[in-house]
């Protein structure tokens, strides 16, 4: 991130904003901070001393001489503590230990059933967190924050899952409260595909300000980056394209969706729906991974269903493209592994249904971060929240 002195000088007024400069650059001298902010030398010295005292900034060597003594360089103390994140899916969970910049340092994966309820799933996450801390030689006291991604709608401000179709027992459950007696730190809760979108945009497409991330896995969901920030909507319900209702010409009846409605995109094209239809066709599949493996073998019936699913998902994406005009649409989740069979249908529908102006420069691509996008996005969202300028003042005051 590059910032001009003229734009920053008028806005940097507190210690929190100064820390943002160190978080976004490898290292800075006092003169660099003066140049970037327009603040006086005494003010910059005072703020750097406070950040050093709070162990948020540390000396990193010597800079280029400026007519006398070498100018001391400082850097963000990203190893002072760690972040713990858990990307919870319908049937599996990935956890990671990250540094304070949000870089994933170690990770774990295990099968879970999110419908078993919050206590067994969060207990599993806690056990995995303990394994990660032990392997890194860290303690719970060094955890600055915990990030939890879930496959359901989230009221971001209250950090609660609200009326999730597949998460029995999770509605309004106090996830931060569950961790309160185990870790003394901030807990962030967000929809899994929002985290995926943020990770993909920040790491793979940092110059793209408008992006749509579609997770095609057991269910179908989307996260939107608008103006470089996650767009959650007024109540956190933005991006729920899996429950857009569609008319499918070759369907005898509208299938019942897990949300209770009929004819939803997910009820036709979600991973669970593919498993349902493949089993009805006499195929021996039990999981979404089984369905993906069968499709990749070239099985005629499985490939036909995959291409049909692509067209149905493409119908919902086309509506989203017309509405928000993203530059890039990224497809992730288990079904992204059948790119050859799925993407042709998606592209067909998007380019047929969306306006030419909205698709003129549009890219429709598979995820580059694969199944790590949720972990990466959670860590980056968590780091940004913990070290937001308005929170740094309190963090410094508490040390």
From TrEMBL:
Transmembrane portions of the chain: none
Keywords: Kinase, Transferase
Keyword Kinase recorded: yes
Molecular functions per Gene Ontology: kinase activity
InterPro entries per the UniProt record, alphabetical: ATPase_NBD (IPR043129), ROK (IPR000600), WH-like_DNA-bd_sf (IPR036388), WH_DNA-bd_sf (IPR036390)
Highest taxon listed in the record's lineage: Bacteria
Keyword Kinase found: yes
Family annotation (Pfam families): ROK
Family (UniProt): Belongs to the ROK (NagC/XylR) family.
The protein, known as: Sugar kinase
Lineage: Bacteria, Bacillati, Actinomycetota, Actinomycetes, Micromonosporales
